[in-house]
Amino acid sequence: MQTHFTIDCVIYSFNEGKLQVLLTERNEYPYKDWWALPGFFVDKNEEMEGAVKRILYEHTGLKDIFMEQLGAFAGVKRHPQGRILTVAFSTIVKYDDVKSKIKPMTSYMRQASWFPVTALPELAFDHHQIIQQSLQKLKNNIHYSTAVYEFLPEKFTLTQLQQVYEAILGKELDKRNFRKKIANDGFLKELQEVQKGVSYRAARLYKFDKRKFQKHVGVE
Amino acid sequence: MQTHFTIDCVIYSFNEGKLQVLLTERNEYPYKDWWALPGFFVDKNEEMEGAVKRILYEHTGLKDIFMEQLGAFAGVKRHPQGRILTVAFSTIVKYDDVKSKIKPMTSYMRQASWFPVTALPELAFDHHQIIQQSLQKLKNNIHYSTAVYEFLPEKFTLTQLQQVYEAILGKELDKRNFRKKIANDGFLKELQEVQKGVSYRAARLYKFDKRKFQKHVGVE
DNA sequence: TCAAAAGTGTTAAACATACACCCATGG
DNA sequence: CCATGGGTGTATGTTTAACACTTTTGA
């Protein structure tokens, strides 16, 4: 037995203090005019991971981004035309890197736009479920993955980092406890450099140090 | 574009102090005579979850077992005849419930047999990779899931429970610390009953109390 | 000098780890 | 009476959580 095979991509970014997801407005039936996750059919002989990269590229112009499989969604009724198995992936991009590049490159969708995860529109297919499952995983793994750093520029302040944590977890954190934890983890590199262009005390900048992280986690 | 669609099932049990996986010996090409995970094609109009149950049933005679999706494996080269997308699931059964029922119910495989995860034979396709990924997940979630109790009979001793933990984690645990942790979690029900038929001091029996567990985890 | 955000320590409670001996039972 | 596994407590270090004020800076 054969099935159609697509991938759907949950693309996150962080902007205006909020965790955002990139959605596209469909220009084709079914679900014409609905918002949906960016997703397409996988080509014959195309590796799944390659398909994710291709779609990410077609939507954002970006390459070489961290991405992770969430799982397969294969409900017989998830698509009105019969089973279309989709494998969902999630990806994180830096909002500023991407904002000028976001535009539909196929006529299948009318526009692409960011939505805060706390204020999603009604979505096509089972895409709401996919996002919720993905979000849950992001929360669960926040302390064991490098995901938070994917949201931030290379150099960032501790307050920015804390805001990303808060947006993902959906709750406020204590500043002192947060800084203690981060300091204790010890995989940030403190720079001899501070923020510029702010009208208040400038915060120190930090970098994520991948080497220290890998030592900490116990690389295999 | 369409692809063949199978599911593969990682079926665990606990026996002789070891974590075991059920494998089948293939009687068909490709990989004739190799050991592989139990797996089959999903039927048209069959829900994926239904297919897992069906295959589990065909191999073990069991129904209504906890099962969880691991993810999709879709490499173009994972099957010699071209892409066959498989979605892997994992499942836990009680060895004693199952041991008399295990037998091939299709001529596609010659026999089914348990192997300790520490001594697996060479496996067909990418099944070794699937098992390793599944094992990792089992370890990661051991404290947050009810999986360990799926390995045990309704009434069990604390030593049996500890052995399951040890088999999954692949390391020894301190008896006192383990008991403190379990007591502290507080979702076991102590029975007024002890082991029978042992030639040493009989151990107290316990039950897993699902209600208490759900309160503890914070059910949603 | 004011507004805004940066930066900083202490205490209490919960939890994890290391470690060794006596007890109850059946044979 | 002995072999076997059952059962128990203490001390130490680590992690988490709660909580508020002073400092720096640019406008």
Automatic annotation (TrEMBL), chains A, B:
PROSITE patterns: NUDIX
Record-linked Gene3D superfamilies: Nucleoside Triphosphate Pyrophosphohydrolase, Winged helix-like DNA-binding domain superfamily/Winged helix DNA-binding domain
CDD domains: NUDIX_NadM_like
Protein origin, superkingdom: Bacteria
Domain Nudix hydrolase: 4-139
InterPro entries named in the record: NUDIX_hydrolase-like_dom_sf (IPR015797), NUDIX_hydrolase_dom (IPR000086), WH-like_DNA-bd_sf (IPR036388), WH_DNA-bd_sf (IPR036390), WHD_NrtR (IPR054105)
Name of protein: 8-oxo-dGTP diphosphatase
Organism in which the protein naturally occurs: Sphingobacterium paludis
